[in-house]
Amino acid sequence: MPSAPLFRFGVIADPQYADLAPNLTLNRYPANSLDKLRAAIEEFNRHDLAFVVTLGDIIDREWKSFDAILPVYEALQHRKHFLLGNHDFAVASQHLGSISARVGMPSAYYEFVHFGYRFIVLDGNEISVFAPPEGDPRRQEAKDLMTALERAGALNGQRWNGAIGDTQYGWLAAKLRETKAAGEKVIVLNHYPIFPDNAHNALNSDRMLALLAEHDHVVAYLSGHNHSGNFGVSDGICFVNFKGMVDTEDTSAYAIVAVYGNRLEITGYGREESRVLALQSA
C-alpha cells in the first residue's frame, strides 16, 4: 500500500453566507461562515492540495453576499472550483443568468482532469423552480417532476431540489463513455445527492443513479445540500454527502480527500466525518 496519495483535494459544502441573524430553527448561522471559511482556508494552505472544490450554496441569499464571501477565497493558495446550489439563486431576477460567471465558473457544468481522474461537475439546478427565469418552461418541468414524485410517495419532490436536463444528461452520458475509453476514473460533483434515498436528493435521482451504475470506472459521487450529511455505496460507487459549513454557531465542517490507487481517505474537520473508501476498478 503506497505511503503517499496520488493527490489530495479540499472539500467545502454549503458555507451559505449572508449577513443575517441566525436561523435557530435550522441551527444555521450564515454570518459566521466568513470566519469558518477563513479558518478552513488557513488549514487547506498547510497542505499540498491539487485544488479545493465548494459544492454549492456559496451564499444563503442576496447578490451582495457574493461581494463579501468571494474575497475570502483570495487567500487560498490552491486552485479552486465552484459549483452552484439552490441558495445561490436566491437573488434578484436580473442576476439569475450571471451567477456562474460571478463566481468564475467556466460554465454551469464542466469537467477537469487531474492525475488520471476526470472530475465531472454537474449543474443540478438546471430544472428547478428557482434557477431558470420566470416563465421558462424548465420551471414547469420541475413542478411536473415534483408532482410525479409526490404521487409516487417519494421523499425528494421538494421545491428546494433540482434536476439536470436532457442535454446535460446526454453530455454526462457521453463523458462517461469517453472516460471509459480513455482509461480514466471518474468522480462526479453535484450540489444535490442522489443516494441514499433522502428528501434532499435531485428530482431525477433515479435516472442519474441508473446511468452511473452502468459504469464501473465511476468511483465516487460527492455532494452537499443535505446539511446533515449522508453516505452510501450503490453498485460499487461511493456516495458522500458532505455536511454543511453554515450549521451550528461555532463548529465548522470541511474535508481533505486523499486519492490513492485503490481508495479515498477522507479527513474530516469539525462536524465532518473521516472515512476510508475502497474504490471499484482498483
Outline of the structure:
The chain has helices spanning 33-44, 64-69, 99-102, 137-151, 166-182, 205-213, and strands at residues 7-12, 51-54, 79-82, 110-114, 117-121, 185-189, 218-223, 230-234, 237-241, 253-259, 263-270, 275-278.
Task: Please name the defining characteristics of this protein.
single chain; 282 residues; alpha/beta; Purple Acid Phosphatase, chain A, domain 2; six-stranded mixed beta sheet; 6 helices
Task: Annotate the secondary structure layout.
Layout (H helix, E strand, L loop, with lengths): L6 E6 L20 H12 L6 E4 L9 H6 L9 E4 L16 H4 L7 E5 L2 E5 L15 H15 L14 H17 L2 E5 L15 H9 L4 E6 L6 E5 L2 E5 L11 E7 L3 E8 L4 E4 L4
Parallel strand pairs: 1-2, 2-3, 5-6, 6-7, 7-9
Antiparallel strand pairs: 1-10, 4-5, 8-9, 10-11, 11-12
Walkthrough of the structure:
This protein has one domain: Metallo-dependent phosphatases (Purple Acid Phosphatase, chain A, domain 2), CATH 3.60.21.10. Strand 11 (263-270) and strand 12 form a beta hairpin. With 282 residues, it is α/β, with parallel strands linked by helices. The model has no long low-confidence stretch (mean pLDDT 97). Strands 3-2-1-10-11-12 form a 6-stranded mixed sheet, with helices on one face. A 6-stranded mixed sheet has the order 4-5-6-7-9-8, covered by helices on one side. It has helices at 33-44, 64-69, 99-102, 137-151, 166-182, 205-213; strands at 7-12, 51-54, 79-82, 110-114, 117-121, 185-189, 218-223, 230-234, 237-241, 253-259, 263-270, 275-278. Helix content is 22%, strand content 23%. The protein is built from 6 helices and 12 strands.
